[in-house]
Amino acid sequence: MSKKPMAQRQRSDKKNKDTYFRRDVVVYTALALLFCVIVGRLAYVQLINAAEIEAKASSRLALVAWDVGTPYRGSIVDAQGHSLAYSVEEREIFLDPDIVRDFLASPRNTQEWTLDKVAETLGQMLSLDQAYLQEELEKNSQYVLIAPNVEMTLAQQVLGLKIEGVGGRPTYRRTYPMQTLAAGTLGIVQRDGNGAEGLEYRYNDELLGKGSGVKSLQLTLDSTIQFLIEQEMTKLVNEYRPQRVCILAMDPMTGKILGSGSYPNFDPNAYGKTDPEQRKNLAVSMVYEPGSVFKIFTGSAAIEEAVFTQGELFHDPGYLNVGPMTITNWDSNMSSEGTSITFAQGMQASSNVVLAQVGQRLGKEKFFLYLDSFGFGRETGVDLPGEERGQLMEKGKVREIEMATMSFGQANLATPMQMLTAICAVANGGTIYKPYIVDTVFDEKNNVVRKNEPQVRRKILSEETCGIMNTILEGVVNQGTGSRAKIEGIRVAGKTGTAQKLNPETKEYYQDKYIVSFGAYAPAQDPKMALLVVVDTPQGDRVQGGQVAAPAAQHILEGALQSMGIPVAKETPGTINDVGVAGEGNVPPAVEVQPARPLVSGEACVPNLKGLTIRQAGQELARRGLGFSFKGSGLAAEQSPAPGTIVNVGDQVEVTFKPRE
To answer: What pLDDT does 574 receive?
Structure first.
């Protein structure tokens, strides 16, 4: 191998050094430029654009505000458009402690806020503990929710302090302006904005607009009828101290639910203070032995099948031996009907003995066929969640004694919804309608999305049979156990029920516990409303259906018919005579009151209700989004708050009604 000359090696070494030097210069120059860029950027950030960067930091709060806390839901109104449930916009007030502290130390804190002063001011405005707020402000965190539901006026005042790091996120609070009215039917909305019970649950997707725009609901329910129901429910509770009460009203010609009340009741605005048992909608969840109201269906089936003639006499000494068992009448210890009694007279006296004989003639096969046709043992399909099916005895296990007791309403279990749906079939001429409570679904622009119409399920009785039963049930009210349901000038058809309660442990009937009821419809010749009153375990000396439930039905029917414009006799001795008629056009001009100052979002002015009927007062308060608590009957005489008072939407107005002078 040849070696390079010395001169050539020196030239090569010099060339390599020059190459390395140039590379070093490039690298160091690039590093120097990068350093200058970084230093320059830091100088720009810290010296030139500090305010802008701080503002961007503060925008962390603003970005949170783009989200919505509890989402908006569509409204629910009654048949006349009165608001029953709607969403009120509010603010969730929250803190970003890091930003608050940065703001307090910055030149932008021109009001000289301190941590103590911020905690004290927010505590006073939001009714929060100052020590708690100060502790939160000292944390190394970016988001602390301190007030979940703040009405808009107060929220604007808080945000108006312009303390960086104190923000408000839009949220919606579900409001029920009529408080407990129809609470079990409406249901509740949880903190996350989802309906959990009642219509709020059943129509949750529509009300939230999942998959489409937010929808609103208009119900078949009439607030005036609902108020009458709840007024009578309160009277029953105060007088008889029952465990449960359910009152249900329906249009027998369509299946529309006009009113539905349950006790125990609750205020859905504060449902957190209640338990699920208290919030049950008893119309669909209460399962009970219906007692003598059930005789309507046994009798109708027997008339349809012609198992007896109208003038035929039944033997009724007050008892009936069925195999080794003896059936007695409810009043067998007081009187006997003797040996000459027609079916109609047996219904008037609510004779178990007569109905047991009728059931025996009808036979098990036909009896069960009619049970199924009337809808017992199956869901009605009403658009309410939690509907029970009831329970029928297995046909193969039914002996002669069970056949007899089933005929007058024992052994089988039913729900109030099943019972009233079946009563409506007798009232309307023999047709079973599917009951429903949502009449119309609207979109966000108030366009009709869906209109529910009456649905015929099946024809089960002839009009002739229903006409005969109608006359019999009128006799029950005019001459029989339902006499306390009489309304002068109105023909009322009805049937009482007094059923012994079954002890679930011993499987034997209590001797001193009853479920009493009354089913009715009026006017009997052209029914506008059917009604069922069920009272579970009333306390007192006389706790028959005619004594306890019939008077409540009378008051509700009377007031409801008046509200529909159907006159009753002037001498009617009812206690509810001034409910008011829709569209009667005599609302006093003094209703509108000028508030002391302009209203802001979320506020309402209390109207002057003096001289208004119950319906009119309810309309005026509902129109303003205000709830109510009514006492008495007649015309509005006293109210609190006073007319002209500025209150928050959803607040309650107490009104006392007194008879016309």
So the answer is: 40
